[in-house]
Structure formats: C-alpha cells, structure tokens
Amino acid sequence: MKTVQQYFRECNVEELISLYNNLYPISASLGYTSTCSELINDRNIKLLNLIDKIQTTELTSIEDEYILFAYFIPDNDFLATEVACVKQSELHDDIVLTYSYSLSHISETAGFYIADLDITQSVLDEVLASYLYESTFFGYEQEGIDETLDHLEASSKELDKLLNSESNIISTELMNSDTTLPQIPSVIEKEYDSKRFKDYKDAYYKYCELSFDTEINKLTSCLETSSK
C-alpha cells in the first residue's frame, strides 16, 4: 500500500481541486461578501498550498498504522462514496471502529495508508478529496487545531472533576450510540411516513453495514496475503 503523501505526489492537482470544488461547494448561506469567483480562487490558492505541504512535509512517526478506504452507501437512487479511516491493529476486532483525523496534523496523517482495494482505487480522487476536506475542518493551514485541542483538554479535565464528584450524576446514554455508519440524509426522512421510513432506515443501515464489512474483510485478506 502507498501512503497519502505518495498518492498526492502522483495525482493531477488541477483535476483534484476541481473535483474538490464539485464535491464540497462553497455555501452561500455563510454570508460571504466576496463574489463566487473570488471565493473559489482564494480557496484554490489555499488548496494548492495545502497540497504542496502534504507532498513535502516530513512525516511524523505515530504509534498505530491507519488505513483509508472507500465503500458505497445508498444515496436516493444512486450509490455514493463514503471514506473510512481504521486502525490496522483493530481489523480483527468484532467491531471495527472508524476514526476522524480532523484534529491531527498533516505531518501525521500524510503517512496514513490508502487501501489497495478495487472500490477505493476506482474512486481514488474522491478519497484524496475527502482527505483534504477532513484535514481542513479547522482551517486550510490547520490553524485552529492546537487551540481546539487545548480547549478539549481543559473540558476533559473539567469532566473528570464532575465524574469524580459524588454530588454529580452524569448520564452516559448519549455516549452509547453507534456512530460508525453514515447518517441517513434528512431529506429522506421527510419523504416517508413513519412505517415506510423505519423500513427504509433498516435497509439503509443494513446495506451500509454490509458494504463496510465487505471492504473490511477484503482489506484484512489483502494485508494477510501481502505479509506472507
């Protein structure tokens, strides 16, 4: 398998940025005062700088090996691409967790691997665009990461104080929900009555789970074969 950095070094940058703009258009509801052309040009420059950073950054060694792969999910009458990030060390677990890396620096995540699976390779540019989107959640230069991490650390310490206090009872009900699979688009829920929506929801999650598990099994088999 190749790393994210290796694939970015080989990609057609102009085509990738064009695809990124199609997949993740600028929202007019955010109240920008510039024209669309100005906004797109500004974003394209930021993406060029980010891609250059991904291509040239010195990779930081991390404890676990992470792998990105794609699988299909239903999207109305079509199939859409979902990109997941998993730990290689957890592929044999009963439940394989997925991870967000929006709070990780490029020097770490550019060393993630991209799976040599048919679906992933067939939508490779979408996988790279997804990586760009995840990596810029806190700014195109990732300028908001450190501040957010500091805030999370402070909040974690405050939560520890609450959990250790006998006078406070913290409900963990919301922490038990399974967020591994993608959520059903809200527009779908509005179009169906409760019975039909329940049937749709059951089928939706069943398909997502099957699609995810199929790629996990293929990835595990591929890694086992390559290690022999």
Q: Would you summarize the structure shown here?
A:
The protein is α+β, with helices and mostly antiparallel strands. 52% of the residues lie in helices and 11% in strands. The longest helix has 33 residues, at 194-226.
Annotation keywords:
four-stranded mixed sheet; 228 residues; 2 domains; globular; alpha+beta; single chain
Description:
The protein is an alpha+beta fold and 228 residues long. The protein folds into 2 domains: 2-137 and 172-226, no CATH class; 145-170. It contains 9 helices and 4 strands. It has a 4-stranded mixed beta sheet. Helix 1 packs across helix 3 (36-56) and helix 2 crosses helix 6 (124-135). The radius of gyration is 20 Å and the shape is globular. Mean pLDDT is 82; it is low at 169-179.
Q: Strand order across the biggest sheet?
A: 1-4-2-3
- How many strand elements? 4
The tally of domains stands at 2
Helical run tally: 9
List the helices and strands and how they pair.
Blueprint: E1 2-3, H1 4-10, H2 13-23, H3 36-56, E2 66-75, E3 78-87, H4 106-109, E4 113-114, H5 118-122, H6 124-135, H7 145-163, H8 186-191, H9 194-226
Helix pairs in contact: 1-3, 2-6
